[in-house]
Write a structure and sequence with these properties.
This protein folds into three domains: 33 residues; 51 residues; 113 residues, Ribonuclease H-like superfamily/Ribonuclease H (Nucleotidyltransferase, domain 5, 2-Layer Sandwich), CATH 3.30.420. The protein is 42% helix and 15% strand. It is built from eight helices and five strands, in the order H-H-H-H-H-E-E-E-H-E-H-E-H. Strands 3-2-1-4-5 form a five-stranded mixed β-sheet, with helices on both faces. Helix 1 packs antiparallel against helix 2 and helix 6 runs parallel beside helix 7. The longest helix has 18 residues. The radius of gyration is 32 Å and the shape is elongated. It starts with a helix and ends in an 8-residue tail after the last helix. The mean pLDDT is 87. GO terms for molecular function: nucleic acid binding. One of its GO terms (biological process) is DNA integration. Pfam families: HTH_21, rve.
Length: 236
């Protein structure tokens, strides 16, 4: 129990008729503490004023960066005291609100029973000799284990994923299910709308469980070992 809590208990006991000497002895606090007035708020007042000034001027600065400005102004503070005053007066930088992404209902089926029933797709990354990133979109028919398409670019977003799907579907027809992980390209509005218009169901695997997309993960491993690892690309 802290000293302040014990002093509060001692004051309560005194109000109930216990002598001051006995209450302080039982709770192991000094009698002078009952009448002591903390002087820290008075000492901290100019520091708090300076902190509020820099907090208003630099809203995204935290206690550590403001402490540097205070030191330049001749106010020397330790890290612990700076953090204590900063937190006590609610000057913390407000946490950024994360935008909740739309998650359609998770639908899972067993092994496909015919071709063109389930397509699975995912990304594989590599780098060129000049440092450029290679982003490869791989697409598999889970029944035949056939590679339907491999699209390679520096950046592939949801709109381009839809273009690739449309090109493959124009040749082979539309699948019943699309299986993928929870990447932003696969849960984008443009892809979900396109799939809904053509009567397809998006099957998103559970986060942290890549084996639920095992067919595509297996192909990606072979694609990396037999193609990407065996070739050296100078540029895109």
């Amino acid at each position: 129990m802290s000293v302040q809590a014990r002093l509060a208990q001692a004051r309560y006991a005194i109000e109930r008729g216990v002598s001051q000497r006995r209450a302080c002895a039982l709770l192991q606090v000094a009698r002078s503490g009952l009448t002591y007035t903390c002087k820290m708020p008075i000492k901290d007042a100019p520091i708090v004023q300076a902190m509020r000034h820099y907090s208003d001027k630099y809203p995204r600065f935290g206690a550590r960066r403001v402490r540097i400005f205070l030191r330049r102004d001749g106010i020397a503070l330790g890290r612990d005291r700076t953090a204590r005053i900063w937190a006590k007066h609610g000057l913390q930088v407000p946490a950024k609100k994360t935008k909740k992404r739309y998650r359609p209902e998770r639908t899972q089926i067993g092994a496909p029973s015919r071709p063109n029933e389930v397509w699975s797709y995912d990304f594989v990354f590599d780098a060129c000799a000049n440092g450029q990133t290679l982003k490869c979109l791989t697409m598999i028919d889970e029944f035949t284990k056939e590679s339907l398409f491999i699209d390679v670019a520096g950046s592939i977003r949801g709109k381009r994923v839809v273009e690739v799907l449309q090109a493959v579907a124009a040749e082979r027809g539309y699948p019943t299910y699309l299986r993928s992980d929870n990447g932003p390209e696969f849960v984008s509005t443009v892809l979900l709308d396109w799939a809904a218009r053509h009567g397809m169901t998006n099957m998103l695997i559970e986060p942290g469980k890549p084996w639920q997309n095992g067919t595509n993960e297996s192909f990606n491993g072979k694609f990396r070992d037999e193609c990407l690892a065996m070739n050296w690309f100078h540029s895109r």
